[in-house]
Design a protein that fits this description.
Helices cover 39% and strands 12% of the residues. It is α/β, with parallel strands linked by helices and 500 residues long. The protein has an 8-stranded mixed sheet with strand order 1-2-4-3-5-6-11-12, sandwiched between helices. The protein has a two-stranded parallel ribbon with strand order 7-8. Strands 9-10 form a two-stranded antiparallel sheet. Strand 5, helix 4 and strand 6 form a beta-alpha-beta unit. The protein starts with 54 loop residues before the first strand and ends with a helix.
Length: 500
Amino acid sequence: MSLTFFLLLYCFWCGSSADDGGFTSLVGIGEPNERTTLMGGFIKASHPPKVIRDEFFVQELDHFNPNDNRKWLQRYQTNNEYYAIGGPVFLLIGGEEQISNLWMTTGAVAEYAKIFNAMIFQLEHRYYGKSYPTENLNTTNLVYLKIQQVLADVEAFIIGKSQNELHDAKWVLFGGSYPGSLAAWARITYPNLVHAAVSSSSVIKTRIDNIDYYKVADKALSDYNPQCVSNIRQATMVINDLLNTENGTKYVETVFKYSSPINLKNDVRQFFHQLALPISQIIQYNKDNRYFPSREEQSPVTITQLCDVMLKKSLGNPFDRYVALHEKLRQINRRKSSFYSYQRSLKDNSEISWNKGLVKSGDRQWFYQLCTEIGNFVTSNDEDHLFGNTIPIDFFIDLCSDIFGESFNLSELEKAVNKTTMLYHGLKNSTSRVIYLHGSIDPWSGLGLKEPKSDDSVSIFIEGVSHCADLYTSRSSDPPQLLKARQKVTFYLNKWLREI
């Protein structure tokens, strides 16, 4: 794909191969691993294995315009294998990637479903996967890609499915990462329909400049060895100095095997952005339990391996070690080069046809959401940040304007992000029956809701685990604090499902 070397390991925000890069790589949940579980015994498909089929639900294109009668088909999946009449309905909300039927038969949601005899649905997010609301994804058509429209899709789906034996069923929404936010937002928006929500690694706070991300990442590395962080900063400063001269720039292009000249200001910013992202992903998805089609596709790189390279004196100075680290990551992904020019990024992200390039992966759609409602751009814009003052917010605002048009500027984004904040500001104080889960080494946890003030919502902070760790299939090697977190989820679900 293009903009960045985002998808190093995959959830790596997700649904794309590690050979590509894009805007979706620091979000998402990917697919759960299929393994023997600890909770509720074994989760096994029936014999023959449970077949999960794609189904489609008729949705309105614009839920808030009564004069617009256009419809579209939203993909969803069903698993009734664990369901018993009178049981609850668990709805896993899709996000910035296509849905996977693995979530219907494995992963924590399936484990909880077996315990509570729940029906499971999975609903794909509009504009992703096979859920095509419009003919193409030009900027005009993307206007219907809004959080309020997405939540209204959830409302319509619940109403449509709450018939016959599901008429009195209690609906519990699950989501990880951005869908975790959607699960919580749906609970506050439609409390009469959504009985409870499990919001894993969700970003509830919205701002334009997310300086918290690299602060958490910095701490995760420092907890292993503070010198690891120091060496990354030193390497970044050396690169910055080299890029100030023509010969230095050529040297950087050579050692990092950069495929295009680093000429313009935004080329430099993108280069630093692409250097930072693989490290971010290693931290964010450290020791996760995601599914990979083959063992070779699963990177062995963890925080420990990353820092061991940056601390290995035999490799040379911090700059030399940084070069060696990125060479190792390229080898893992079987890539000759890991970088793309700013102009190449703009070209690739301007594709508007379904099933092509960055539309197929969801990158164009997700970046549109960031530029119009969510913000939370991951920046490093101060000398004491993990990557120094190399990735300013201006870089992302320029991308918004250059990809979608001049009207997508900082002023308009500020208004939109403030509106998002106001719409859902009541979560902290008034919304009941929401479980928030966060891992201590998940860089997104800085924008999560860790202290809900509602008497009947809870936040579970899990030391030593990464992004969405609680959603994946449980395994014998899980740390005890992760097992305890899942037990707490079971406890609260049991309590709340007894409530009217």
